Amino acid sequence: MALGLASAVGPAPAAAAPACPGAAPARLVGVVPGAALEGLTVDAGGRLYTTDLISGRVYRLNGPGAPAVPIARVPGGTGAGALAWTPGGTLLVGYGADPRVIVGDALRHASIGRLDVNSLAFRPWVTGLSAANGMDVSARGNVYATNDFGNLIGRVTPGGAVNAAWGSLPSANGAVLGRSDGWLYVSRTFVNPGVSRISTANPRVVQSLLGVGAPSTPDGLTLDSRERPIVPFNATGEIVRITSPGRYCVLATGLPTSSVVSYGRGDRGFSAGRLYRAGFDGRIYEIPGGFDPGATAAFPGR
């Protein structure tokens, strides 16, 4: 698989998509009434965190079926976006995912805050990014943030130095680092829809892993234990797994407005190996077909 992905240096058209082995109907495991969910991650204790674009709140669910409890709200009260963990266990919250993103990279108004999930103290950290619709953090503490309405991919050092134009890929969305942090995987949502990966050593090296039709709108992705991207197709309601360059299978259907997927973490609650989806419908589903005992939510050094 790794050798196959490494050879994908140009746009790869999607083949006909069969159902993945073990594909099964999604199971509803959480609801945030009235919310449009954007970020999704899980901590080491199996507690799930998600963000609401509308209210700017960060919610926590202690386990499947548990109520969603608001634990923080971003400055300005709207546009909460991606979530990611620092090496020290602080939860980073992207914000600024509001109507200003329509102008693309012009404003660079987006910010990242730091949330202590134990004390629930939230404090702004950096600003000046194009957006933070997707976000992940390397083992060295470097933060990568994407903008699906623009071209720029930002990078923030552990000390807080912002490079809003570290990389460029039209409509990059979602962000997840592969093993050893050598590649940043992103979806391409509106422009040339599909999935790419970007070299963190040289962001000018971009490999396309999948191209799909315009109605699909790929959104916030994750990786399984074999480093295969798992991607929600927002408009068509499919959750898919890329099996080789240009090919994918379907893990679940009937989930329109899916915005992000993540594996669980730990041995209880939203546990490791189980795949979860959140969406603009305010609902969180488990995707049973994506079960992978070796897969876990993104966190530094995983």
UniProtKB/TrEMBL annotation:
Domain of life: Bacteria
This protein's UniProt keywords: Signal
InterPro entries: 6-blade_b-propeller_TolB-like (IPR011042)
Signal peptide bounds: 1-16
Protein name: SMP-30/Gluconolaconase/LRE-like region-containing protein
Annotated source species: Gordonia westfalica
Higher taxonomy: Bacteria, Bacillati, Actinomycetota, Actinomycetes, Mycobacteriales
